[in-house]
Amino acid sequence: MPLHRIYHPLSAFSSSDKQKLSERITALYTDRGLPAFYVVILFTPIESESFFVGGKPTDKFVRIVVQHLARQLPNEEAKKQFSERYENAIAPFIKDKGYDWEVHVEEVPPEMWRENGLIPPIKFPEIEKEWARQNKPIPY
Amino acid sequence: MPLHRIYHPLSAFSSSDKQKLSERITALYTDRGLPAFYVVILFTPIESESFFVGGKPTDKFVRIVVQHLARQLPNEEAKKQFSERYENAIAPFIKDKGYDWEVHVEEVPPEMWRENGLIPPIKFPEIEKEWARQNKPIPY
Amino acid sequence: MPLHRIYHPLSAFSSSDKQKLSERITALYTDRGLPAFYVVILFTPIESESFFVGGKPTDKFVRIVVQHLARQLPNEEAKKQFSERYENAIAPFIKDKGYDWEVHVEEVPPEMWRENGLIPPIKFPEIEKEWARQNKPIPY
After folding, report:
1. A126 contacts: CB under 8 Å, gap ≥ 6
2. Can you give the CATH number for the domain in which A105 is found?
3. C65 near B CB under 8 A
4. Is residue C70's pLDDT more than 90?
5. Which domain, by its residues, includes C33?
6. Closest approach of chain A CAs to the CA of C57, in angstroms?
7. pLDDT > 70 in chain C, percent
8. Minimal-distance CA residue of chain B relative to C101
């Protein structure tokens, strides 16, 4: 469900950084009861000569695009809180290393969303819990 | 119009697989009368150490992001049918090879969509048919 | 804010082309008073065997996905004008070189958008001007 595309300079993250950052992002959702496998994170390295901020090539900027499907946050306050939790999750690997960064989160209507071809059980909390427990999509 | 971004493990698809899968996806739209050239499909290989599902690196997952512009499917039933047709189109190259996968389709308002700088003839079915026949954008 | 993802054939753009094209795109926004650093442009080369248009591999097509956050264009006329200005900006490096191309612009609600962890001052024109003057996000 949540898809995180992280565009970053070639040397921004070690394998271990990517592992730990992914775990921190994933926990934002599993803490709320969502199945872990819903969280997909794609790291995309971009060469300096292909990464422009303000019309200048950069190797000091990280751009993150997040898409949410399983949950639409109900109001401005909830959205604000999510952004704050997200910023805390990523800070050790971006802010604290001296990068500039930008994040936005999109909320995509879930009608044409499928996991292994199955309609995710957004409206069936008990089934969603079972998906979370088994950490995979199960026909229902 | 439909843009399909397919994020996949390095070894998931041969050139021939990509060719055949693209043809199957394209047919979903040309069968409905849309110009073939509207269908753009981008395969993006992602290394295992940059592809995380549930906080773990993976080489067994395919994530597909689809964007529709030319047509907004009018209701929940039409959306459901599209997802079913899509799943059938991709199954031989993903499900049947043992990958896990996730798809979502977004519907993007078409006001700022252009093909070779031209406003696509969404509201002019006869012109759209001509674009489909010639398989290229034609000034009108 | 505006994020431009430019998917292109391997040999479409030299480093100098990317530099100049980025400057032209950035100017579309700085001309309207937006901070230069809001404009992020990512060039993503796609191999011919992974880039399909109409079910056929191509090395003559450029696909651009633009996302706007800081401003929602208020009506159809404003959107049309933006698309025209955009087409003019990119023409020397795409149309004039014989490529086919497709662009679409999405308008994303800005509630969960952050620059270096800060809420961009969409509702505070004076602060936005200061961000533009200093070309960086400043706590306020």
Report:
1. none
2. 3.30.429.10
3. yes
4. no
5. 2-114
6. 23
7. 99
8. B116
Confidence of residue A115 (pLDDT cuts 50, 70, 90): very high
Which chains would you list as touching A if contact means 3+ CB atom pairs under 8 Å?
Answer: B, C
Q: With 0.95 as the threshold, say if the pTM is over it.
A: yes
Number of domains in chain B: 1
A-chain residues near B7 (CB < 8 A): 42
Global ipTM: 0.98
Q: What's phi and psi for C59, nearest 5 deg?
A: -125, 25
User: How many angstroms from the chain centroid is the CA of residue C31?
Assistant: 14
Residue C113 distance to chain A (closest CA, Å): 4
Name the residue of chain A whose CA is nearest to B95's CA: A116
Q: Is residue B137 part of a domain?
A: no
Residue A128 tokens, joined = 């969603």
Q: Which chains touch C (3 or more CB pairs under 8 A)?
A: A, B
Residue B57 within a domain: yes
What is the predicted pLDDT for the residue at A85? 98
Rounded (10°) CA dihedral A118, A122, A127, A128? 100
Report if residue A9 sits inside a domain. yes
Q: Which chain A residues touch B85 with a CB distance below 8 Å? A: none
Q: Is residue A64 part of a domain?
A: yes
Q: How confident is the model at residue B118 (pLDDT cuts 50, 70, 90)?
A: very high
Residue of B nearest to C76 (CA): B111
- Match 């469900």 to its residue by tokens: A1
Whether residues C43 and A50 touch (CB distance < 8 A) is answered with: yes
Burial class (CB in 10 A: 0-12, 13-18, 19+), A20: middle
